[in-house]
Amino acid sequence: MSQGLNLTGAQSTSQSNTDDGRGLLTVSNVLMTQLERCWQDGIYLVNLRHRFWRLTLQLLSRYCSFVTRQISSHQTPTEPQTTSTPSTSNLKPLLFLLVDCFQLIAYVRVALPAHISSKLGTLDTAAANESPSSFPTWLTECLEEVCERIHQTINPLQSLIVDQLLRSCLNFSRQILDVPRQYRRTNRSLPTTSSTYVSAMIDPLSELGDLCRTAVIAASCAKPALEQLINRAVTQLSEAFPKAPH
């Protein structure tokens, strides 16, 4: 289900301590690299600028479609025979995809217009009348539409991550049913320490917090959203626990 959500070499081996504006997933890094290549000297051709602009929009559109397909594939698993419990190892690519969406939005709003504008120059009178330090209005408006489309995938991604996390945590609540059986019709002393299911339920949430801290190092722009994600997960877990099968 996580096909295409491969981690970059830096993230799969050792963590980078800098916010370099790049993605945590290979697919995101490849996208940003190819977007820059479209406008590099030796590749970009002035007479075909309309085609390079079209290719830029197509690349961004394909990425949006890719994110949407990932959400859909995790919501409707293609392997019904699989009964494994969701874990943070499954959530890690989804979380990093969420972070990459924020990274890409920042890239499209700041870095990409600079690459494109430097090659286009003043192609029309409207652009010529604008401040030299600003980007053409048509350029920023088109790219902002792309950003809005990327942003529309963020809430479904957050909901998917929280849903899978809750299923992972609440799966251990079934162990509550075993507690009475262990002491029924026995002379065993009543438990005085927390049952193992308590820490088992909290561990996935703690691991998600660790993943968020790792992601923030590489993408500070995603920090508010990740804080919101953790708060949302804690709130929904607290509300769902009393309703879990005990």
From TrEMBL:
<feature type="domain" description="COG complex component COG2 C-terminal">
    <location>
        <begin position="13"/>
        <end position="241"/>
    </location>
</feature>
<dbReference type="GO" id="GO:0015031">
    <property type="term" value="P:protein transport"/>
</dbReference>
<dbReference type="GO" id="GO:0006891">
    <property type="term" value="P:intra-Golgi vesicle-mediated transport"/>
</dbReference>
<dbReference type="InterPro" id="IPR024603">
    <property type="entry name" value="COG_complex_COG2_C"/>
</dbReference>
<feature type="region of interest" description="Disordered">
    <location>
        <begin position="1"/>
        <end position="20"/>
    </location>
</feature>
<dbReference type="Pfam" id="PF12022">
    <property type="entry name" value="COG2_C"/>
</dbReference>
<protein>
    <submittedName>
        <fullName>DUF3510 domain-containing protein</fullName>
    </submittedName>
</protein>
<dbReference type="GO" id="GO:0017119">
    <property type="term" value="C:Golgi transport complex"/>
</dbReference>
<dbReference type="GO" id="GO:0016020">
    <property type="term" value="C:membrane"/>
</dbReference>
<feature type="compositionally biased region" description="Polar residues">
    <location>
        <begin position="1"/>
        <end position="18"/>
    </location>
</feature>
<dbReference type="InterPro" id="IPR009316">
    <property type="entry name" value="COG2"/>
</dbReference>
<dbReference type="GO" id="GO:0007030">
    <property type="term" value="P:Golgi organization"/>
</dbReference>
